[in-house]
Design a protein that fits this description.
Elements (H helix, E strand, L loop, with lengths): L1 H27 L2 E6 L1 H17 L3 E6 L5 H7 L5 E6 H11 L3 E9 L3 E4 L13 E5 L2 H13 L4 E2 L12 E3 L5 E5 L4 H4 L5 E4 L1 H6 L4 H4 L2 E2 L5 H5 L2 E6 L6 H10 L2 H11 L4 E2 L2
Parallel strand pairs: 1-2, 1-3, 6-9, 6-10
Antiparallel strand pairs: 3-12, 4-12, 4-13, 5-10, 5-11, 7-8
């Protein structure tokens, strides 16, 4: 009988300890799942992950190679946040897809650049040269404005950030503007004279806007604030403590130093 009681006591104690450990483990599991473009966003998040770990949070980074799925996945509650886009793109996405996503922090800015393809300088562009630009609404307008800043075209000033190729009012060199999905622009370089490429895709291809582009948006331009890359969450989650901790980590000195040393001007912290 004593043996039975001893066995029951040991079993009960072991079960209690096991259950207690499980409860503690569950209570201490502060996982944040964030969707991001591979470069530079996921790389920046990897540094923030180290900062978050010190605060007791686990950061899981899910990489996406397009500009649509990260928002749809966040809306469907498979992510806690995403980090890949700027405010004009988010606003257009919300309007088009009836989503309710909001920005909670501006983290960095990536200058849009004009990169050489078949033609190596802007002065050498011939009549009818082919120019590839992003096909999404906000980045297309941004690309057209950058081309305008180089004196290559003129855009209807009333179009603003909604400008498309239909809003080009002057095109003295009869440039053939080709709209291509942003993720495919680097691959198009061999087939066009020049291409206007988003910063993250240029970096991913080993190009730096500061050293490899023919022209780029300046860091003190309006674009630097308008197109700052943001941390996005579902509306209503803005005050979650874990997401506040994520913002603090992304705006830490450790992350700022990493951005400045790693990207050398092709990614600029805005905090």
């Amino acid at each position: 009988m004593k043996k039975v009681l001893s066995f029951v006591l040991v079993f009960t104690l072991a079960f209690t300890l096991f259950a207690g450990c499980g409860a503690n483990s569950k209570q201490g599991n502060k996982k944040i799942i964030v969707g991001a473009s591979p470069t530079p966003h996921a790389e920046i998040l990897a540094v923030a992950k180290e900062v978050l770990k010190e605060k007791g949070y686990e950061l899981e980074i899910k990489e996406f190679t397009d500009y649509v799925q990260p928002n749809l996945t966040l809306e469907s509650k498979e992510l806690d946040a995403n980090y890949f886009q700027h405010t004009p793109y988010l606003n257009d996405f919300n309007a088009e897809h009836k989503t309710n996503l909001v920005s909670i922090a501006e983290i960095h800015y990536e200058p849009l650049g004009i990169y050489p393809g078949k033609t190596k300088t802007l002065d050498d562009l011939k009549d009818g040269a082919q120019v590839a630009i992003p096909n999404d609404t906000t980045n297309e307008a941004r690309a057209l404005l950058l081309l305008e800043a180089q004196g290559l075209i003129k855009v209807d000033p009333n179009a603003g950030l909604k400008a498309t190729i239909n809003d080009i009012v002057e095109n003295p060199k009869n440039l053939k503007i080709i709209e291509i999905e942003a993720a495919q622009l680097v691959r198009s370089l061999a087939d066009v004279d020049i291409a206007v490429i988003n910063g993250n895709y240029a970096i991913q291809a080993g190009m730096n806007a500061m050293t490899d582009s023919l022209a780029r948006e300046e860091k003190d331009s309006a674009a630097a604030t308008t197109y700052a890359n943001i941390l996005v969450v579902r509306k209503g989650d803005e005050n979650r403590e874990d997401l506040k901790a994520l913002v603090e980590a992304l705006k830490s000195d450790k992350v700022k130093q990493f951005i400045e040393e790693k990207y050398k001007g092709s990614v600029v912290p805005v905090f």
